[in-house]
Structures are given as C-alpha cells and as structure tokens.
Queue: 4 jobs
Job 1
Amino acid sequence: MIKFSKRIQKVKPSATLTINAKAAELRAQGKEIISLAVGQPDLAPPESVLVGAREAIDKVMTKYTPAGGLPEVLDAVASYYNKFYDTDAKKENIIVTNGGKQALYNLLQILIDPGDEVLIPSPYWLSYPDMVLLAEGESVIVPTEPEQNFMVTPQELEKFFTSKTKVLILNTPSNPTGCHYDQELFDEICNWAISKDIFIISDEIYDQLVYPPATPTSASKWFKSNPENVAIVNGLAKSFAIPGWRVGYVITHPDIIKNLSKLQGQSTSNVCSIAQMATLRGLTGELDFLEKNRKKFIQRRDYIVDRISFIKGIVCPKPMGAFYVFPKIDKLYTKEINSSTRFCEYLLDEACVALVPGIAFGDDRCIRFSYAVDISILEKALDAIEKAIEKL
Ligand SMILES: Cc1ncc(COP(=O)(O)O)c(C=O)c1O
C-alpha cells in the first residue's frame, strides 16, 4: 500500500467534485445539464493577449525566463496597477506567478510557521483554508451574515484576534458572494490589522468586475504606506478571460518578493514565456473591453438577482462584483433536503442545473450560482429551478 504523507491526507478533496461527478453521470444518461457552477468568464479574451502569445511563438521564445518573470512584464504590471490605483509599485515590488492561486499559496508558505493563525472571513474562496493547512497554519474562520452583505467589521475581527494571529485574507469583490467592501470599510479593516501588526493579503482578482455605483477597492494605499505588511494578489484569469494561461502576480515589499522568487525558483520556476508575453501585450494594450465586459455582467447580474429574489423564502444579497450570487436558501430545507449539498443534488436531479453547495465556501445555508453564462441559459436554468422549488 502506498503510504502518503500526513500533509496530503489532511487536504480536503474539492466539495464541488460530488456535484460534478453526479452531473457527469446524468449527462452520460443523456440528460441535458446546465452548469451554473463555473468559475471562469465565458467572454472572449481581448485580441491583445492573443497577439502577445503569437508574438512569443513567432520569436521562438522557448527559453527559461527569470523565475519571478521577465523584467518588461514586471514593469507592465507595475504601470498597470499604478494607472488604476494610487500605488507607486516598481519592478522590485512584483512577482509573476502561475495564477493568483500560486501567489496565495506561496505567500502563505513564506509567511506562516506551524501554529500561526490566519483570519479568514466566511464565506471564503474554498482554497484558502487548505492552503493555510498546507503551510501548517491554523485557519480562524470569521462568520458573516447575508443580511450584512457578508461583510466583517474590525470589531468582529477583534473577537477572533489572538497573540498567534499572523495574517488576514481579504477578498473583494468576493468569490462566492459577489459582495464588495467599499473603500471606507476596507480601510477601517486594514487600519485595524496594521495596528495589530497583522499581515494583509488582499485578493483583488475580481477588481475589474465591480459594478456601479460601486467602485473598485484596493489595499494599494496600505501597500504604499506599509509594504512590509501588505501583499496585493491579482491576475489575468478573470479580467482578461485567460484562466488557462495561468498568470497571476503579487505586489508587495521587495524582501517578500525575494522570498517568493526563491520559493518559485525551487519549485515551478517561471510562468510559461508565451503567457508572459500575452500578459505584457494585454496589460499595455487597449483596455476598452473591460467596460464592455462589465456591462454584460451587469445585465446578467440584474436578471439573475431579480429571478432569485422573486422566489419566496430566499434571502439574496445583491452582488456588486465578480460573477456569482450566493443566496441563503435554508428556509427551503426539508427533512430530507437539509443541507446545501442535498439541495444542490435535488436541483441537479429535478431541474438539471448544477450549482455549488455553500458548504464548500464555509456556509451551509447558501448555494452559489455563477452567471458567467449567456442570459438565455440563465433563463432556462431559473425556469427549471423555480419549478423544482415549487415541488418541495
Ligand atoms: C477569489 C479567488 N482568488 C484567486 C483565484 C485564483 O485564480 P487563478 O489562479 O486562476 O489566477 C480565484 C479563482 O477562481 C478566485 O476565485
């Protein structure tokens, strides 16, 4: 028998697996399943990234690059962020990573010692707790309520603070809720964290998918004043619609960048050179598509929120960003269908719609809808869901 490490045995398999396996089973039986479980944009990427990738191939860019990224790409990330936010980032503040995921994973690896505590407001992006576990840290989950748009306040965080608290992970707009902190509340939280010497990891991967009247929120100001206490994580997966090309980046203090580069240099090394060239052309190219994409997502968000809010017994906070809705549906639970997983299984069987159970994100009262699909698909899915709920 293979003896696997204790480390890997502790990692939870993705909770979405059950639903996906069931969806595949039903498809194999010839059923048409609509998936609203997707975590990537369905929109086309801008031409600029395709041009960059072709250019890399035409120039036969097949060699290794520096582990942390090509210098011109680092410059492009810095200018791109400085254009949107009040940062003064330079090359030495940047590393290019294999997606935002590796950025988060490696940050936790270089910051956390066994037993250090990481504050994670819940609902959270499902990889955070397992990343903390793999860094031998302890996740401290801070619950929030849909009635408060799933927001935490410094006062609530304070209740979970201990002498072991080392890191706070913030994610706005949020996956899975789509809820979004305004800059004022976000600043209050950062101010509190910095006063306690807590390191802030600000996951800003959906920052270009924020819908008016809301505006993007960033830890940029805190990076500028306290770079040794703040890391901004972002990438091109969501805003440039190239999730499979695996480009993320971190903006932080140069000494943190050096350690991230050391770790990356001994593990994955550089991000694929073709994807780096796509990044360079994307970040320095025409950005009009960002506004067009936002408009599309706003239409879909309005449609899905209207439809879900119409269903009796559901509390549906209006998301101000990303492409997810996270309604609270526990009032509809029955004796048998008494958890978010069971509820999703029921909707899959009865409505042929795949959704992600809220338990995967730390909240068993909710389910996650993704609206990264055409409105005609949303309409079909919601019609079927409404009928299935009527039967409960
Ligand atoms: C909140 C959040 N952070 C980070 C990521 C990682 O993105 P990627 O590794 O594709 O850049 C995702 C992807 O779904 C996400 O939803």
Note: The chain has two domains: 6-44+289-390, 47-284.
Job 2
Amino acid sequence: MKMKVAQSAGFCFGVKRAVNLAFEIAKKSKKPVYTLGPIIHNPQVVAQLEACGVRAVNSLSGIKKGTVIIRSHGVHPRVMAGLRKKGIRIVDATCPFVTKAQKAAALLKSENRQVVIVGEAEHPEVAALKGYAGPNSVVYNNNHFKVQKKLGVLAQTTLSAGDFIEALISFGRKAEDIHIINTICQATKVRQQDTMRLAKDSDVMIVVGGRNSANTSRLLELCRKAGRPAYHVETERELKAKWFQNCSKAGVTAGASTPDSMVKKVVDRIKELSSNHKMVKL
Ligand code: SF4
C-alpha cells in the first residue's frame, strides 16, 4: 500500500508559536503558570505542559497571582480587563490571524452594523470574537436570525471557504448594505485544499487530531465530502488494520494542533498494519 502525508499536516504557525511560548514560560517563569482552557486542542501536548507546571484552568475566578498565558484562540476583552485589574502577568499568545479577526469584528461594530460571525458559537475563538463584535452580534451556523439592513460579516479563522460562501448566499442578499471581511486564515485554506486533493487521490483517509479540535473535524468532513472513507484518530493506538484492507493508497492529514511527533507515530503504525507500503511526501 502507498501512503501520502499532506504537506501541511501538523502544527500551524499560530499553534507552534503558542506552544513554544508556553514551554518557554514554563521554564523561565515563577509558578504558578496557567492557561485559560487547554493551550491547544490536543490532550497529549496539554499533558506535557502540565508535567512542566503549566495548568489549564477553565475559570480565572480563583486565581490571584502568577502568569496567565492567553492561547492562540484569544479571549473576550472582558477577560483581559479582569486579569489586568487583578495585576496578573499576561503572556498573550493569541495568533496574529485571530487578532486580525478581532480587529475586523471591532471595525464592523464601529460602522454600526449588525455583526455576523460565521462559525461555531461554542468555540472559544468565536466566543472571544463576540466580545469585539458587540452585544448585538450574531453567530451563524445554519441558524435563522433576523437580518438587519446594515450587515458586517466575518468568519471563524478555521472555517472552510465553501461554508463561508454558503452562509453569505443564505442570508447576505437580505441585507441592503453589507461589508464582508474574509478572516479565514491562509494556513487553514492551504490545509483544507491539500486535504481535499489528497482525499480525491486516496482510497482511505486518516485524519489525526484532538476530538475537540474544530479544524480537525472540518478536515474529516472534507474527506467525507470527497466521497472517501475517513477516520479520525487522536493517537496511533486507535488505528485498525481492517481500514486498510483492499486499499492501494492511504492518505494522512492532521489538524493545526496535532504535533509532528503524533503524525509520525500514526504513519509508523499504518506501515505496521499494512504490508507492502510505499511512503510518499506530497
Ligand atoms: S489555524 Fe490559522 S488562525 Fe488558527 S492558530 Fe493556526 S494560523 Fe492561527
């Protein structure tokens, strides 16, 4: 069986930056060090950081001192203000592309538009974006909402271009005046294109990444849209030999929060599970 790994598989620029910063802070800073939520949607990396003394917490309410690392998804401006008020040291690892989306949300709000964020309401990046877009903003994920005359639209950075266009078609024409800012990050676009290309050329696709990673789930959806059997695994231990039976070409892709070391473990395990493999880098 031949195997190809998507060129863009693994950590993106923003995740690499946030994770490196977290390990650096863990080494240099006096404890306690926290992240608000896991630094990335990958339980294995979060466990490694925990071992270095960086604790992921869900709320900052009990925290009175130390350092808080803001992860690549960014946070609601209210959270930043609260940390400053408490005098807690902030290390901001918000991805610059997410910062760009936050600025876009604030700009659309300043133009007195109803701001629509196309994405998943429960995703932390979107929850933070809402803070910049204002209380009248709406998160659109195929839901109905009352479209106002003046609209401002942006996207969750990891949305697929196809989903953004579909959303614009569904509600955009109801507005009289619309300002659209495409905030999908380039790394996401390239990864999704690579994955689609690879899926079309493979008999089976393996998508590696955390189960709570939105961009990894989107890659799985894309593989299935391409009409290929696709399986989502967090680690190599979940792979099953039967997935590769009667396959001559397998493709491997991975979400933005998947370390290269995990991609390698998955690739090595697929090699073990299938005989006569031949590895090709896209
Ligand atoms: S996927 Fe894009 S926006 Fe998100 S962290 Fe990576 S580079 Fe930044």
Note: The longest strand covers residues 150-155.
Job 3
Amino acid sequence: MGNPLFDLTYGLFVLSVNVYKRDNACIINTAVQVSSDPQRISISVIKANHTADMLNYTDDFTISTISQKATFDLFKRFGFQSGRDVEKFEGFDGCVRTKNGAYAITEGTNSYISAHIEQRIDLGSHVLIIAKITDMQSLNDDPSATYAYYHSNIKPKPKTDASKAGKTVWRCKVCGYEYEGETLPDGFICPTCNHGAEDFEKVTL
Ligand SMILES: Cc1cc2nc3c(=O)[nH]c(=O)nc-3n(C[C@H](O)[C@H](O)[C@H](O)COP(=O)(O)O)c2cc1C
C-alpha cells in the first residue's frame, strides 16, 4: 500500500531532438499512443529540461523505446545530466540519425518512433505534447523495460554509508539522489534528474 500514483505502469524512452544542428536527448517515462487514425503519441516533458527548451524550436522528435538490455550507463548519459552542460552524444556510437534529423538510440532499445508535433499543452511543471507519427522502425525483439523493471533490475541499489547510519535522508526514487534532513524543502527539485518533491521518499539509514 502506498501512493496510487506509484502503481501506474510506464515504459521508458529516450526522447531525442535536433535543433539548429545541435543534438540532445533525455530519458522519459511518459510516451503513450493516444490515437490510431491518425497514429499519434503523447509525451510529457519537464519544462526545466533542456530538451523541453529545444522542443520550442522544432516540431519534430524521435523516441527510442528502452529494452531490458539497457544498462544504467544509458540512464546516466541521457537522464542524469543536462544538455545545457554536456554534449550527451559525444563519444556515443549507439545511435543512428532518423529521417527527421533527430537521433534514434540503437543500443539498449528495441524500436524507435519519429513524430511531428501537433499540440503543446502547458501543464505547469510539464509540457504535454501530442504528435503525429511520421516514421517508425523495429530494431529487435528484446522486451521493453518498464519503469518497475528499471527500479528492480537496472538502477543500482543504494550503498549503505556507515558515516550516515541513523540519519534521515529524502531519496529521489528516480535517480537515487539523497537530500540529508528531516524535512524536504517545499518545491524541492532533484538537482540530478529534475524530478519534484513528490518523487522523494523519506528513509532512515
Ligand atoms: C527513469 C527516468 C524517467 C524520467 N522521466 C522523465 C519524463 O517523463 N519527462 C521528463 O521531462 N524528464 C524525465 N526524466 C528526467 C530527464 O531525463 C532528466 O532531467 C535529464 O537530465 C534532462 O536532460 P536535458 O536537460 O538535457 O533535457 C526522467 C529521468 C529518469 C532517470
């Protein structure tokens, strides 16, 4: 028993964009098919993310569906750092350029879908984007990774640090970042993955 929001199921994706010849991508868990005629998907992107900024300058993007073969490195590269600070594709070979110019990830994924944006809906913390599918490709038969699979099998288990024994921390359920203190400040945003206070759990070490 717990927060019903944590009982929702999700897939995991790398959302890629190419704007003015610059590439960037971030991990998302919020892609779903929302219509079949025409085929459309929606994605929900945290507005603080650089990828969200870039999506203001292009109507095209590609999502690559993460498979159970993905390693934590994929999440670290695309989900725990910002394209504002690093070139995420530097030294990364596991990708191909799709027809719309954005990269598809070919390592640790099983397919990709490119789409053209039709609507952007401002939801406060996130922007909800509805887009028509323009191209898609299956890469292999590896099973998709769900968010639950990521938590149980891909995300490393937190290490116990003897110097922190007995202390209370608030741990980000998405990336494992720990904030030390009895209470989490109002409106706290994870400095590693940009998720909000609702994604933190109180843990006594
Ligand atoms: C498992 C996981 C799921 C995530 N889901 C989303 C999501 O649905 N939407 C989103 O905007 N960011 C999501 N993120 C956070 C972004 O991937 C992260 O903030 C990234 O560093 C943003 O990079 P950028 O600033 O280059 O866009 C997720 C991260 C992880 C690790």
Note: Residues 4-150 form a domain with the Pnp Oxidase; Chain A fold (CATH 2.30.110.10).
Job 4
Amino acid sequence: MITLPEAEQRLVERCERWVAESVVPEAGRWERERVFPADALVGAAELGLTRLRVSPRLGGMGASFACKARIAELLAGGDFGLAMSVVNSHNVAEELARWAPEAVVQRWVGAVGTGACIGCTALTEPDAGSDFAAIRTTAARTGDGWRLDGRKAWITNARAADVVIVYAQTQPGAGAAGIAAFVVDASRAGFARDDEPCSGAPWSMGTSGFRLDGYVARDEELLHPPGTGFERALQSINGARVYVAAMCCGMVAASLRCAAEHGDRRQAFGRVLREHQAWRFLLAEAAVDLRAARLMVADAAQAIDAGADVRTRAAAAKVCATRMAERHVRALGHALGAEGLRDRHPFMRHIVGAQVATLVDGSTEMLLERIARRFEDP
Ligand SMILES: Cc1cc2nc3c(=O)[nH]c(=O)nc-3n(C[C@H](O)[C@H](O)[C@H](O)COP(=O)(O)OP(=O)(O)OC[C@H]3O[C@@H](n4cnc5c(N)ncnc54)[C@H](O)[C@@H]3O)c2cc1C
C-alpha cells in the first residue's frame, strides 16, 4: 500500500523470511510450553528490529514509521505476542535515544538495539489502567535523585526486562500535571518482579508486574520531568495505536492465508470447501475488511512520517482493525472446522491477540472518546 524505499523494502523481505522460518514453526510451542522466547527476541534484534527507528548516528536503522508498521504486521502474522515484545523493547531504545541524557543513551540504547538487553514501558498499575492520570506509584525527591515506590501490572516484557521506563506521580493529588517518567535498571536494589506472570496474556509477550520499594533513580535517569510525562506518553501512544492496528491486519492476513490453503484441500460433499459459495464468502468478507483496515493504517502511518497530528486517525485505525481481527480471526478459524483449534494453526493464539489488542495502548472505549471529541480532527 505504501511504497517503501529500497533499503526498507529489503529489510521487510528479510523480516518476512525470518517470520516464516523462525516464528511460525515455533509459536505454538511457546504457548504450549509456556515460555518467553528470549532467543526469538535476539533473532529480531539481529535483523535490526529493536533499533529500527533509532538514528544511524546511534547505531540504529533510521527507518520510517511506515516501515515499522509493515514489520509489525508481518511479526504479528507469525505471533502477536512476539510482535508486541519486539516492538515494546524497540520503543525503549527509540524513546531513550530521543529524550535521555548522553550517559543514559550510552548505557542502554545500543544494548537494547543489539538484543543484549530487553526494555519495557510501565504506565499501568493494579488500580489504574485507562485512567492513567490516577497512577499511584510515587517519585519523591531525595538528595541525589528520586525515590520510587509503587506497583506496576500488565507490563509487556516485564518478565525479562533489563531496563524499564516507569511513569510515576511526583505530586500526589496533582493528576496529569505531576506525572514524570524515569529510567529504571531492573538489576538495582528496590526493583522486584512479580513471581507470577499475568495468566491469560500470550506467553511470548512476557507480561508481568513488578514492585518498586525505595528504588533510587539518579538525576540523569529522570526521562520526562514532572509536567511533561503525561503529554509525552500520549504523543508516543498515537504511533502505538497505528502499529497495533497493523498487527491486527497481520493476524487477519495470516488467518486468511491459512483458511484459503485449507479450502483448496479439504473435501466436503464431493468438492473442495472453496467451491462452496457460503464457505468462500467467509473469506471474502475478511478480505474486504482487511483491505479497509490496511488503508487506514497506511494513511495514519504516512501522516506520522509527515509529522502530522494523527490523534483521531490513529484511534480510528485501531478501532477498525481490532474489531476486524476480533470478528474475522474467529470466523476464519471456524472455516477450518475442528482443525482450526490445533496449535499448528495460529487461530487460537490470534483470538487472544485480538482481545489483547482491544486493551493495549488505549482500550476501544478510550479511543471512541478520543474520536467523539472532534469527529473531523486529523
Ligand atoms: C497483555 C497485556 C499487555 C500490556 N502491556 C502493557 C505495557 O507494556 N505497559 C503498560 O503500561 N500497560 C500495558 N497493558 C495494560 C493496558 O494498557 C490496560 O489493560 C489498558 O490501559 C486498560 O486498562 P485496564 O485493563 O486497567 O482496564 P480498566 O481501565 O479498568 O477498564 C476496564 C474496562 O472499562 C472500560 N472503561 C474504562 N474507563 C471507561 C470510561 N470512562 N468509559 C467507558 N468505558 C471505560 C475499558 O475500556 C475496559 O473495557 C497491557 C495489558 C495487557 C492485557
């Protein structure tokens, strides 16, 4: 839909081959054996995917947002959890490269970019999800930095992350105005992971929670000062909405391919399934909605690359694509009959992926609120 520059197109093709060879054959096993596939994250890093949008000056690929969206689609076609894990780790490198002081950039950006370290970003808490301004993790000024206390929950990659961007409240009662963000080193005193992963989430997402108990962040580890944290989080979340929408397209595209192959083989009533009109209409319905969702993703991705305001476009693309994935992954799995339940096919994982996609980076209701504020916003 978007013609990428040649170097980005080659990267997309390498990514496509890697997903087919290294993700698709393994993804069912990750879920069955309940493992977080750290090796796959390293494989993604070797392709450059965890430094995709980092500037070449810092060892990154300097790729466009449209390229990121295309890669997110391909990764999620193989496994939504892995796609989220790779992109969330990448986002820490991108965010630190953009905002952190030199010493922090030197410490983490290369390490996350090469896959030596894993990153995650923590806004959500046990008692605050959609209502981000209500977070209770506190950051209090000390002589040589900030003391952080609180709990985070449902954080992608938190099971294995080495570096965490933590959002915290610096002035209890101040809401959005008091929110700041800190770079937290998971190996330092005061950081403790929850023992239990978040059950129900894909294992390949490494979703977990953690506790901060008197953790001390140094002055240079203040990433977004109080008064800027809330707004900057919302800025980057617009991009997240677009790549999650792209991931939904990837899950539907993979499901569609799988159903089409089955329909060419499986016989019923003397003909292959594809020759039954009512059966092939299931696939045609999915193809129509997939095309519409991809156009919305492409439109929003191009607008991001052009530096435009995409708040409404990003929200609309995610609402459209998540609904499409919720509807069609299930329907396409149904098109395989009982065979669709087997874990050599992606349907059951993608059904969970589609459900998770309706929550992360703004739930559907939050996005509809955004759209309803001004229908004609960009
Ligand atoms: C697998 C997974 C990975 C995640 N990864 C991350 C991560 O890496 N970092 C991170 O910070 N967070 C992460 N999250 C958390 C995610 O952002 C939250 O789940 C999301 O913000 C919704 O918050 P909640 O689950 O607390 O639901 P709640 O905020 O409690 O909402 C519950 C329901 O009520 C609806 N609702 C809430 N308020 C309103 C309203 N005003 N009007 C109408 N409906 C409303 C919501 O849409 C939702 O359907 C992850 C979640 C999951 C499931």
Note: Strands lie at 119-122, 138-142, 145-155, 163-169, 179-185, 191-193, 208-218, 222-224, 267-268, 271-272.
